[in-house]
Structures are given as C-alpha cells and as structure tokens.
Amino acid sequence: MTNAITTIDPITMEVIQNGLGSIVDEMALTVMRTAYSGVVKDALDYSTAFCNAEGEVIAQGLTIVVHLGSFPSAVKSILQQFEGRIEPGDMFISNDPYTAGGIHLPDIYVIKPVFDDGTLQGFACVVAHHTDVGGLVPGSNSTQATEIYQEGLCLPAMKLYERGEPVESIFKIIERNVRVPDKVLGDLRAEIAAAHIGERSFLSLLRRYGAETFRDYCNALLDYSERLARAEIAALPDGEYEATGHIDGDSIESGPVTIKVKITISGEELNADFSGSSSQVKAGINSPIAFTRSAVYGAVRLILDPSAPNSAGYFRPITVTAPAGTVVHPVLPGACGARGITGFRIMDTVAHALAAVAPDRVPADGEGGNTILSMGGYDADFNPFVYVDLIAGARGGAPWADGAAGIPHPGSNIANTPIEIAEVELPIRIEAYGFAQDSGGAGKFRGAPGQIRQVRLLADEAILQMRSDKRRFLPYGLHGGLEGTPSMTILNPGTDDRELPTQGMTPIRKGDVVWHTLAGGGGWGDPADRDPEAVLADVRNELLSIEAAERFYGVIIQPGTLTIDQERTAAHRSS
Amino acid sequence: MTEHGQNAPGETPISTQNIPSNFRAGADIGGTFTDVILLAPDGSYRSRKVLSTTDDYSRGIVDALTELTSQASAAPDAVDQIVHGTTVATNAILENRGARTALITTQGFRDVLELRRLRTPQLYDRFYEPPKPIVERRLRVEVTERVDADGSVLIELDEASVYAALDRIEAEEVEAIAVSLIHAWRNPEHERIVGGIVRQRLPDTFLSLSSDVLPEIREYERTSTTVLNAFIGPVVKQYISSLDRRLKGAGSAGELLIMQSNGGVMAADAAALAPANIVESGPAAGVIAARELGLRAGFADLISFDMGGTTAKASLIEKGVVARTTEYEVGAGISLSARLVKGGGHALKLPVIDIAEVGAGGGSIVWIDKGGAMKVGPRSAGAFPGPACHNAGGEEPTVTDANVLLGYVNPLGLAGGEIPVYPDLAEKAFAQSIAPRLGLPVLDAAWGAHTVANATMIRAIKAVTTYRGRDPRDFALMAFGGNGPIHASGMAASLGIGTVIVPPAPGLFSAIGLLEAQQERHYTQTLFGSLSGLPSETIESAFRLLEDRARSEIGEADLTIKRSVDLRYAGQGFELTIDVAGSPESPTWIASVTDAFTAEHERTYGHSAADEPLELVNVRIIAASGKAHVRPATLIAERSGSNAGDRTIYFGSTGQVQAPIIGRGDLDAAPQHGPLIVEEYDSTTIVPPGSTVHLDDFGNIVMTMPNANA
Q: Is A330 contained in some domain?
C-alpha cells in the first residue's frame, strides 16, 4: 500500500471517485455517439479508462469487463519504450499483443498522456474493436490465420500525435491497410475525441485539489479497492480448487483446446495457475497474456462485491500463473484474432473452480460468450462491406432464478445490431431473431434458451466467418442441473442443410442463408424440483414442448387446455 | 391555503393580448402531495396543497379546485382550462398495472421485445435480471408478411395469419394490442391493414400501430414504445374520463389539458390516444417553469435543479430552449448509467425533456460501505419512516438529518412548524452509525454527508452539461423542490457556477409550470438517406405531412411550427437534432443545415469533419398552438418584518458561523452578504459566507457566488 502524505478523508475520496467515474463515462459516451462501425456504435465493443502516471487503472467506464485488466499492460509498455520521451500533446496508438500489451489486432488502443504543469499525471485510455484491420478475412477475426502476420495491420506502440501534431504517415498506413477505411478512421477519430475530452475533464478535477493531493487520493482509491478485495478473498476458505474447460476445437485442428486452472486461495491472496492448459495453437484463438489476466480479474471480481470502484487496486491480491507457449500465454507468432472465445472460456473455467468455494455466487454455465458471425465482401462496384453480428446472451440457471435470457456473457457486455439498421446499411437480410424452443439445460432453475439468428446474403458473394463454440462441450450445469444445449450453424437450411464447423471461413453466394443457434445455458438444481407451474408457463410461452416437459421435468401437460395433469404428474415425478 | 399576488399593486400580467376573461387551473400530482393552483384573470393565483388521494387522484384535484373557486368567489364554470401533470402513466408502468397487452409482429421476430438490445447496465453481476417484457411470449404473435428496407413488399400480408393471430389474442382476453412490423417506419401499409382488421374484429380493444406512435427506424425501440403506449392506453383513458366526469360533475366546463414529457401540453382526449407522450408528465412542468421564469428574469441559460425527498433531477435550458432527448427508458430505476448503457428499463423513444436523475434527496440514507467509504443513497427513508429527525420511526441517518445538524434546516420544524424536527435524533443517528466509523466528530460527519450528497448530485448536472460538451460555468443554477435551495450554493461552488437562483414558491414550482406551458405536439418521421442525395421535395413533403397531422390533431390551422432534422455523419450510429429554418427546397438549405450540424458536433464532441457526407435520419416538427393565455403574475414577497434571530450553521472550510435568519421579503435589490439563512414556508436557502444575495424584480432570490468569474 502507498503511504500518502495527505491525510485522506473518506468524504473527499468519495467526491473524487464520483468525479473520476463521471470522466470515464463521458469518454465512453463520446465514443459511442460518434463512432461509425456497427461493432462500436451498436454492439458497443469498446472501453474507456483512466490510468495514473504509473499505468494503474484508477477508473473504468461502464463498458467491457475483459478490457479492464488490459489497460495497464498497454500503458506500461508505453512507459517503458518511451521513457524520457513522453511529451505534452503526445498521443499513442497500439494494438500489438507481443510488444505493446495488446489483446488482438482489431482492438486499437489510443492512449493520451496527460500533463499538468509539465508533469505527467496520468493517461486517458480508449480501446475500441475496429471493424477491420486487414488480414485474411473481412472483420479481421479469422480463426484460420496461423500466425499473427496473417491477421492484419500490427501497430507497435507509436506516437499518433507528437506534441499536438498528427503523425500523418500513421493515418495513411492505416487507411491503406484496412478494408473499410472510412469506418476505421471514423472510429479512430471517436477514440481521439474521447481521449481529448478525458484529458480536459481530468485536469479540471485534478486542479481543484492540486496535483499532489489529487495523486494521494488516487492512490488511496487504489488502496481502498485493494482492501475490499483482500477482505473478501480472506473470507473464502483457503485451499486449492481445480476446474477444466474446453473449446470444441479450432479451425485448424479438430481436437478440443483445454483450459485447466488451479485456484489457490491463501489468506487474502488468490492465484490462478493455468499449468496443464493446451499448448498454443495454430489457429487464431490464442489469448495474449494481457487478455488472460484481464479475464481472470473479471471472473474473480464477479463473485466478489460488485459495488467496489473499478480500479486496479482490486487486482493487486490476484496473481496469474500462465506458462509461456500455452493457449493462455502465446508467444510470437501466435495468432489471436479470435481469442475472445478463449477469454470467455478462461472466465467460465475460473468460475467453475470457484463454484466450490462460493456455491451461492456462481450460476450454471452460460452460452460461453457471444458468437461472431461476420460476412464481408464487395458489391458490384467493388465497394467493400463488412457485417459483424454478435449473437449473445443465454445465462445458466442461478441458485434462485432461471438463467437470464438475452443478457450477454458477463465478460463482454455487448449489444445486438438493430435488424432494420443492418438491412438499410448492408447487403443482407435478417430473416429470424428469437429463442429456440426446448433449448437450455433443465434444472430446478433452468438455463436460458438459445437464440436463433438467420441471415441471408444479398450481395453477389462474400466470405462468411463464424466464431462460435459449445457444440460438443456443452455449458455445465450445477447441483444436479443438466448441461445446456448445443450451438449449431447450418448453411441453407431446408435445401443444402450443410452443417458448418463452429469456427472457420466459408465462401458464400447471393441468396445463401446462414442459420445459427446459440448454445442454451446450463441448469441449476435437479429438474425434478422445478415448480410444475414454472414448467407450465414455459409450455404456454412455447419455450418448452409438451414432450420436453414430460421428459425433463416429469410434468404432464394436457395438449388442448394446456393445464397440468396433476395426478399423472405426481405419479410420474414420484416414480 | 396560500394566496399569492394579491398584494402586488401595479403588477401587470405578463401576457397581454387576447386574454381570456376567465380563470385557469393547474393540478400537479406528486408522490405525496397534490398541488392545485387557481389562476385569476389578473394573473394572481391561490394554491392548495393536499395529500394525494391515491385511490382516485381525481377526487383530490376536484375537491381542492372546488375549494379554491369558492374562496375566489368564482363560479365553478369560470375555469376555462385545467392543466394537469400526472404520474398515472408512469405508475402504471412502474407498478405493472397496465392493460393486458398483446403484440402482433412479423414472422420470425416475436422475441425482439424480450431480447431488447442485450446489453445490461451492470458490469459485474452474474445474476443480473432484465426487466420482464411487458408482453409475455405467448401474447406475442406473428403474422406472415415482410417489408424490405426500401419499403417494397417482400412477402404480402397473409390476412388469414392475422385472423389466426386474433383468434389467439381473443382467447386470452387482452385489453390492448400493439402492432409493430419490421420496416413499418418505411412502409406502414401492412400495419394499417392489420389495424383495420383488429378494429373490425375487436373494436373495444385499445390499438397502437408503431407507424403511428413512432415511425422511426430501429425495431426494438419502436416496438417497445408502441407496446408501452398500448399497455398504459386503457389506464390513461379511464383516468382521464373519470377526471373529466368528476370535473363536469362539480360544474366545471373547462377544457382539460395534460402535460407531456416533452414540456408541452396536449388536449386530454389526444393524450388518451397517445399516452406514451405523458409518461414523464410530472417532472416536465418544473423545467418549463424554470425556463419561463428564467427568460422573464433575463436568465436564458439555466441548469434547473429539483431536489426532493428521494431523488434530485437536473436539466439544461440553453438560450431559452429546453434540452430534449429521445434516448429514454422508463422503469430503469435511478441511474445515470442509463445515459451510457441502456437495458435497465423499457425503451421509450419519444421526445422527453432531458432530465438526469440521481438517487439523492432529503430522505436518502447515509451509510458506510465495507471499505470504509461514505455513501449517500440511493436507498431512501422516503416519507415513511422518513429521516431520523422526524421521529416517525426512521433511525438511519439521512441527508435531511445532516442538514439539521449543520443548522441548514430549522431545528424547530419544517413547513412553518407543521412537521416537527428533533435534532437530538438526527445527532443520535450520526453518532451511532457514521461518526465513529469515520473517526470524525458528529458535525464533520454531517458535513461529509452533505458534501457526498452534493458530489452525487453533481453527476446529474454533469450528465446534462459536460457530457454534452456544455460548461456548467456558462449557466445559472435555478434550484427548487423542498431541498434544492439548501444544496444549491455548495454545488455551485464545486462546479464554478457564478449565480444561483431560487424562484418564488419553490415548493409549488411544478404546478406553476403547468400554467406556463404552451399547447404543443412533437412529431417525427424517419426518412433515412444522404442529406444531399434525398430529393428536396421528398424532405419538404415529409415535413408537410407532419404539419398537416399536427393541424388536424391540435385542431388549429394557425400553428407555430419549428422544424428540425436528425443528422449524423454517414455511418455513425447516433444523431444530433438540428433546428432548421426555411424550406429544403431553398438552394441554401443544405449548406446552412450542414454548418449548423458541424458546429453542434464540434461543440458536443470536440471534433467535426467538415468534408464528411451527412446522413439524414429523421425529420421532426414541434407544433405549438398560437393561442395566448393568462400566466401567473410575478410574485412579490412580503417583508416578514420580524427578525427571526440567528442560527449557528456549519461549513467545512469556515467552521461554525452565526447566520441571521431572514425572509424572502427582507431582501431587495441591494446585495447582502452571506452567511444568511432565507427561510420560507416550503424551503430554506443557504447563503454561504463569501457570497452575496439579492432579490430581483421578479421575486427571485439571486445569489452571487464568490467564484463568479472563475
């Protein structure tokens, strides 16, 4: 913990915390409102934060959990590489997972050092998932790339602005290396604007207290989060808790990718050790170490008190052991464009291990993170288009309620794309969007149903890229609840009926229809303990068939009247 | 009862032309109290505050009005117009007491309403539960049809599927039906046909078509808005007809108008058809009052700040124009995050006054979290058990208890002594649970609670200013509500705001606002296309269609029409609303619209791209009635004449100081120096050391902060 010179009063601390929260939310609003690409403006896949001069996050906007723990790596690499050369008016850009603390190439960081009176006081940080950074496929999230060099434009930490002047050559390089430069540069402008706005508001807050006092309070805020985390970890029983999770396979090798974790709780500290996880794979699902750390922090934090401030102090008592050369700590030239799926699996596996120590705080497994369905190509005049659709949200049953439907994985709080907007802007048509019947694992509290999305290509041709999972290794149930239901992707249902792999590229042509269903969440508790009225409600809502009601829950429902046959149900359930 | 304006010789009513010779009335319903104001033809008014009659709000209104007219020796039918601000629509949604509603939608899209936009306003919550959809799945029925993005029909409407849907709906005995089909913003034909069949088959069912309620692109938002309209329709309709009946029964012949969320009023029968417009009826009136009083007193740029018992609300008035938004959710709870992350409530995408609300009010509970940090709210002791100092059963410390300890609130009682105050109970509450945990004396702990409440409320002010590129220092802070004037000076000091205004009768402010509002309707239509590519006659005719609709629905040929357009850089996801003058057919129109957009984008977001093509998303109009009506005259406060003595008040920086207690009438144009306590029947204004205060010609308390030029 830091020794402050200033006497910290809890009131000023609360006031400063409010002020910082307001700054990062204001930055986040700026990105959202001025962004150009669907993945940022509609799906909201971006984050904002402020770091102190040492690169520790002192506040994060209400954005994406798995981004939070990655800012320190990005800022610290700038601090190291530009020591003594960081000047007022500078702004940095980076996305390289291997030299700049990046988390995959589409996530471009814009980081603005903030100076007061010539002294570095902190960094305004923005990261946004760009709709394309070149590489094998439109959307740059190929699961088939086997080296990072195939994944698109790699930006080491560089000055995008030098003493207030834009470095035009970087903008030009970006413009000529991405498929949709209007959207990418538009989103980059949104990030730059947010960094400027963050700087302005941060300085006004800092100057109210004076740099020194303000810094002491920021340190106190970090200490405060640390105290909260330590107290909560200390309350958990000491011991070692293990769990194993899988990704079905990648687009190069068909075998499962294993995530193995051993959580050690010792006093007020927690270590997550990933020894025994799969070696790094050829396909682009390797999770850079910054991303792995971020996923662990997020997963641990999810079982602790959610009200603590979003600062890096929370993570001080948490350590991550991840051997280099594994899928959770790849080394060059490991590809990582679609590493999101691995991040989700890390979180799910850590949660699974923690279910043993905090059974009332861990729900059954969900859909395993959002599916990314992207289609990209060119129209007749060679104008490029990229459609990136995120299909998300089937949580597992909770100790006291059914899994929430349509609520994204806690690691990535993304939004869907409005159908009407997508159809107006892109050569696609969305033909269905809704719940799949008889999906989701049965349980006293069942998992949320999977969702169906059906998309038709209207352009002449395109490349379809799918990143999905949980077709073979299903969402786990807990305490007697059943596993969730599998995901599936079919090309041209009813005609070709071609099953597509969970991950990979497929060329498609005009009129082709892609049908995808997300996995349904796992169940919590024995299905036989489910309230028959809840079973009936699902049948009446056509989420559950009469047959499934009998098969999974032993509840017999009369087809015509949709009422429970009490006698037969009682007999069936007692047998 | 209180009476205002009678002792204001020489005072003339503000509106001078075409004044009706009769009375007007305003009735504002709040959670606890109903305020009724009777406005005489000369602008003087009298008011009555009664406990809200929650079983049937109309009873309290009519009883109070009858009492007021009889005191004014006026016949019941002398009241020409009754303007009403109501919470009936909001409550129906929050308490889930709307009509049993069905939704008819396009094949394949039954779950759009429940899937929403996915994202949640909670970052670290594995157990987050979204609000339950207003229409459960089995009442969401699909019909066979499909319209393409360009409005062309891909699949003709299969009427047999509509009849099948209605068979099912009829069996479920629904009271309201919403119809929202994909791309109905572009081509409403299928919705019209479905609507026709519904009317024929189920004529008594309340019907809402998305193409009528909100012909805007984005299926979830349009569907949700249409469903809300249907859900509250029967409730609002029934309420309005019951109020109307009761008014007529009491001999009133006046026309009934309802305050809308956008700050204009509309005829009650129109509100019954489009009730989604009145969901935020309650808070809107206070903002309108702030604008009108501000304009008269020469303050065109204002932050209106309303702090009551459980929440504080801020909104922005710029150059006399109230800021509005269409990014609104109802039932989201009190959370600023709603600005950033939707999903806590049900989307309602009609224009509402942009009001940022936080859970900090007089009754908000002060607590210490696990890590030892002091927090205020959002939990509130409410009216019951209330703050500890009210001795009504509340034991937890609240913001009001802190204000009592700091000497800001009269320790002898509120509302002229009607509500007793027990400072020792406030002290006990802080001494037990707060002060020892902070290691602070009770007084400093109370000062801390006051300061933290201010910090929380400042976020609401920032949400309507800095979040939109506005500097709060360019605005005056107009504070009202029972607690606003206590906290205003402290917040102004933190924000660098130079001027604080406390209007006359701050506790009656919303009711006054009802009598200030104009009859006004807002209409919108999505066009979607490049600004320069859309034929100018297409844009012009879209405006004209909306204007025709306004004339027919308001029932006046001569309306004041304000046009605006929602624009964005081609490809962006959010639009800025830009007021436009003239016709799109004028050769300079595009250039002037582009300039205005560039300036606004630069201002709001700190950057613009002059060469980027612009996309037009919606055209909008605001149509206001040209009819003039009598408005409340300026209130001149009476001198209290009696010195109420001094009280010790506490400020963190200056410690304890003695402050004279005066009445509003003891102030005049000559500045007096703080510290001062201005005590009135329904509020207290704290004037801190270092600031000055005077009374302007309009009866406003005007405080000048020491950092006025900061």
A: no
